[in-house]
Amino acid sequence: MEFLIGMIMAFGFHAAAAAADFMGKLLDMQIGFNASAVFDPSGGHAGGMVSELLLLTMALVFVSMDFHYELLRGLSTWMSVLPPGSMTKLQMSPENIIVVFSQQFLTAFMMVMPVFLGLWLTDIAFAYMSRSMPQANIYFMALPLKVGLGILLLAMALPFIIQGISVMYGQAIRFSGLPVVHP
Questions:
Q1: N or C: which end of the chain has fewer CB within 10 A?
Q2: Contact at 8 Å (CB) between 141 and 127?
Q3: Cβ proximity of 147 and 32 under 8 Å
Q4: Angle at CA 22, nearest 5°, toward 114 and 119?
Q5: Average pLDDT by stretches of 10, the chain with 183 residues
Q6: pTM to 2 decimals?
Q7: Other C-beta atoms within 10 Å of 109: how many?
Q8: What pLDDT was estimated at residue 169?
Q9: Among 51, 76, 89, 43, which Cα is nearest to 180's?
């Protein structure tokens, strides 16, 4: 039963990381970094640069906002309130899991939405240019501009991304049932 409790506690944090990774991969594809996906030999997969940036930012926010202390304090409080072996029935429904996934992915989408919107408007402008000048190859002209604009928009949206990551960690702590303890 304690193993199941640990899995439920880890699920909220894994959902937050999966949501940020998914949004990072979508941004990689939208910006154009997906063509130069970097192979990660430790993970055995090719990952995008924005996806790795979001995951590293999540790790930095986790440590800098003292969520690791909050996690340890909550675990110690939870173990004193509910000692190992005393839990007989777990109150977890599939609806709770769906709610956590939807909250995490919605928060992740909201924090990268300004970048998506800016790149989408850029695509519309380049599509209009391509239709008005069919003899010009707009794709090769647009790709470096789109990469530069994507990096600029990502840098401008970074404060919102950091706030969104802290919200995602708060949702993960609430889902895991850890009591929030403040010093």
A1: C
A2: no
A3: yes
A4: 30
A5: 70 82 85 66 68 86 83 73 62 72 86 91 89 80 87 90 85 67 45
A6: 0.71
A7: 15
A8: 82
A9: 76
